[in-house]
Structures
1.
Amino acid sequence: MKIKYGIVVFPGSNCDHDAYYVAKKIINEDSVFLWHKENDLQGSDVIILPGGFSYGDYLRTGAIAKFSPIMDSVIKFATNGGIVLGICNGFQILLETGLLPGVMLKNESLKFICKDVYLKVENKNTIFTNKISEDILKIPIAHGEGNYFADDKTLEELQENNQIVFQYSSPEGETTDKFNPNGSKLNIAGIVNKNGNVLGMMPHPERSSDSVLHKTDGIGIFRSITETIKSKLIEV
Amino acid sequence: MFKATVIIKRRPSILDPQGKAVEEGAKLLGFDNIDGTRIGKYVEFNIDAEDYDSAEKEVKEYAEKLLSNPIMEDFEFHLEEAK
């Protein structure tokens, strides 16, 4: 039995095909594109908000995408416990919708950064990370606005509830300023919501999931999601 | 018809790397007396409303829901009858 990945396509999405490819060809599950003007999630088991520059990043990243018709359905899906993964611009959209707390500021360096970074997997007890065996992943980032910001109270809550899933780190897992590429608070690269069913991450796992590229550290995230859904379906 | 102008500013507690970079430029130009540069956004639009109060209500809602993000920005606006 296959599960279905729904990949939302906004005007300006540019990592939608990569996500579709990984779901369909690498982990061999069903995958479907969901145009942002529609509101039917077509029975998807998991929704991916892909990377890119939805609406040209005008006003603020993700600010206009949050009002796309499909987002009403995605928000309802997430509120009812549906699994949602926002990658890069998808993370920015999740922040704008309020499904995840905080905002993204411009990178501290003001530069667009495109490079492989190391991530410490801070929480392996999530839907998105429970099949990851490594403690440190090497996954690329590609963004101009990935400088995660939230007030101190929110940051404390994120820590208390183990909502910080990925932190920028050294290859050995050291999470100091030196290994923070963009100025993010607490080196945050990815967080989940309180219920643990919505993950936002700036790095691109879909760009490091095919062995042809000689980097496959991203695949564990897709495997974790898939296995979690399948185990739940068996339970029912 | 009313004409609205909205100014969106970064909250004082939020770092503004763009403002900082522009201020570096000011220093290069020789403006050593410039300090605290912050960059925001200016939005203007017309709004068709019955009266000032209803126009004001809509401008506020527009600014709160879309034009600004309250986590990092504050806004102020000016509203006048279009001539």
2.
Amino acid sequence: MSSTARTLTIVLFLVLVLVTLAITIWANRQTRNATDFYAGGRSFSGFQNGMAIGGDYMSAASFLGIAGIIALSGYDGFLYSIGFLVAWLVALLLVAELLRNSGRYTMADVLAYRMRQTPVRTAASVSTIVVSIFYLLAQMVGAGSLVALLLGIKEGQTFLGLTPTTAKILTIVLIGILMIAYVVIGGMKGTTYVQIVKAFMLMLGAILMALLVAIAFRFNLSSLLGDAAAKSGKGAEFLEPGLKYGKDIAGNSGATLVSKLDLLSLGAALVLGTAGLPHVLIRFYAVPNAKAARRSVLWAIGIIGVFYLLTLALGFGAAALVGGKAIAAQDPGGNTAAPQLAQVLGARYLGGSTGGAVLLAVIAAVAFATILAVVAGLTLASSSSVAHDLYANVLRRGQTSEREEVNVARYAAFGVGAVAIVLAVFARSLNVAFLVAVAFAIAASANLPAILFSLFWKKFNTRGAVWGIYGGLISAVLVVLLSPICWGGSNSNLPAVKLTATQAADCGVPTSSTEVNNATALFSCTTPAPIPFSNPGLISIPIGFLAAYIGARTSRERDPERYAELEVRSLTGAGSV
Amino acid sequence: MATETPAPPAPPDEGRYRALQDSDGFGALRKAFRGFVFPTTVAFLVWYGLYVVLSAYARGFMGTKVVGHINVALVFGLLQFVSTFLIAWLYARFASRRLDPVADQLRQEIEGSEQQ
């Protein structure tokens, strides 16, 4: 990275930090009571909230991650985009409006509506915190590596006296402090405006780049795809599913089956996870009524859909104009594909190397904004749940003042943020991108069954909710702990891979070793995983639904009057706050 | 609080909401709502599942060229976008025409009687 681009990147980062902090301080003056803090005073319009949902939802994994997967592995990145988008129909049709009508601040408000408060709110809060921390870790560790890459600090070099390791740690801590500040000072209002600003930046950046890609290929999609496939060296296969997910492994039907089922498992978690993500669910409370909640989801579907269409152009554009080799040389995960594409496009269309540096810096700032908005949303969701569910309703049984509850939420944001910072610093060199998919799988397995049964099934009860949440949560985490993500050894279903010198050294085996299936496994490279799937969804989602069903069936607790109240209120909006 | 008070405690007449739940007006609203969202959910999940399964197992079919370098996989993927936008639009239209008027009226009746 040239020094112009680096200076400009740092300037833009600083501007972004100052603008978002100014918004947050302004929002602080508008925050007077619990509804302001938790739900932004329910004052946002459908359009504003739709943009904020987009800003909350489209993480760096969406922007840099999907563009990178498409740039390196072709079509398979598109599978992610489609899952992430279609998932919004579950939220639109089954969850958003009913939640808005019957809850106040958190996911647990709806789950505990007709149940015993203590066990259900505790379970919902545990699940909210686990999902949010996993998602936070993925974002923060990713941000650490990303900022080092965006500033162009390579191994063995220093920048302002910082080695890549210290730069990573510093970035993680800085992002942690910023997200705590947004939430503690600005609450839901501050967080929402940060997310709206980010959504606009992300859309403008993506539209500009996609437009330049389109100009480069004279608005001819087929020639873009043709060039991308030719330059990838993989030919037509680059444009078909199967290079990354659900691989066909010649002569090994067991391994092929495992790989295909893993793809189906990923697909299930993506489409069912969104409507169970706590930081997405609390956004439905930031609008005045259910109709506005519906409109905000419609806007969200619009901008998220358009954005994922644009990533197709960005990913294939990067493959065609930058090339997989140059991208993998910077980051084997492909996360720098979009910034590298920006540099090439800027140089070609915006005036030589300066233009390249400018567009690169702008896109780097967009990526930074993207991360900030998402981590703020996650911190808000978990601290709201700690304060409103655990403190106010479990610990104090509802006997607490609003002021006290909001203060606890602010302390909780400090706590959650601090835990996330410490964990992210320790996990900084691990490959944690998988945690986003795990967070979706937990949301789909633990939260969604309980939410749907609560809203639609008369006989659902406390035991069903508790069993469903813990059953889905524990099974999803357990499957991951027993999966190739943690245990990288090879066996008949997990064929050995060719190792690079670095990977072999990391694993402590010779490069000729045939013992390793996943060289980036967390616990061991040579012990084979007891469960061959990396995505827990196919196992844990059915367990979550089944546990919720069996729990409800084996308990005699029924409260038809409260269910009637929940159903009438959720569909008509009567008595909603 | 200035902007928000907790929902009023349920009136002592036990069974009030069950009566509302059993009323013809609410029954019609629930039927209309479930009649739209349940079949639609099943339909889009099956349609999405088909796409994922074909991506996993029907590589030859998905790789068939349609025009130039554009293949069935890409068209199928883009159709998932089209169907998502279409369903969202259909639901919005259905809800504002068929659900909202009924829900609003029921809400007014319920809240009106709660204030008395």
